[in-house]
Write a structure and sequence with these properties.
single chain; 206 residues; alpha/beta; two-stranded antiparallel ribbon; 7 helices
Length: 206
């Protein structure tokens, strides 16, 4: 993990989203399988046909330690494209985690691995196999365009995609926003009078 990735890993996705003006976040259906999950790393993209995980297996083999597998599964949730064995392989390969616009299975087994998995749903049905899929192409995941090398940040609130080349800009804006939030909290939190002062200022004329 690079220094900038480490910095982003300490920041909330909500603050990063504010810096991105509310853009570049995956839709609300993409959530972590386990609470307190945190993910920060470069996207290794995988495009698969609905319900077939062969492309994921190929991506696992090609991705580098520290990468985040980001899978365009077309939002298909009737077949799981990863279970606890596949996720254990991904963890053993040294990847940061996986984000799937699709379904997984073996929920408890995956939670026991304590490894970041973000997905749309769970189902009991296993994947099909045979379609190669595509690796390292621009995909859509959770309604957001993701290109190889984009920075992926995820936590319990959701997943943010920071386009490659904009990291420094977004980091600066995020830190500025969080500082403003800290000052606002110090100014207006702690008493009824302070809280009313904020509300009266904000709602002036309304």
């Amino acid at each position: 993990m690079t220094s900038i990735e480490k910095l982003f890993s300490t920041l909330p996705t909500t603050g990063i989203s504010d810096a991105l003006k509310g853009y570049n976040h995956m839709d609300t259906g993409i959530k972590p399988l386990k609470s307190n999950s945190k993910i920060a790393g470069r996207a290794f993209t995988v495009n698969i046909p609905p319900g077939d995980n062969t492309g994921i297996l190929r991506g696992m083999r090609e991705a580098k330690p520290g990468d985040v597998l980001v899978v365009d599964g077309k939002g298909f949730t009737e077949r799981a494209v990863a279970g606890d064995f596949v996720i254990a392989l991904i963890k053993s390969l040294g990847l940061q985690g996986i984000i799937i616009d699709g379904a997984i299975r073996d929920i408890q087994g995956i939670r026991d691995l304590d490894f970041p998995v973000f997905c749309r749903a769970a189902t009991v049905s296993a994947s099909a196999k045979g379609a190669r899929g595509e690796l390292q192409v621009t995909i859509s995941c959770g309604g957001v365009s993701v290109s190889p090398g984009d920075l992926i940040i995820g936590d319990e609130d959701g997943v943010i995609v920071i386009p490659k080349g904009r990291e420094e800009e977004i980091l600066k804006a995020t830190l500025e926003k969080l500082k403003k939030d800290e000052i606002r909290e110090q100014t207006y939190i702690g008493s009824r009078e302070k809280a009313l002062q904020y509300l009266n200022t904000f709602l002036k004329g309304l």
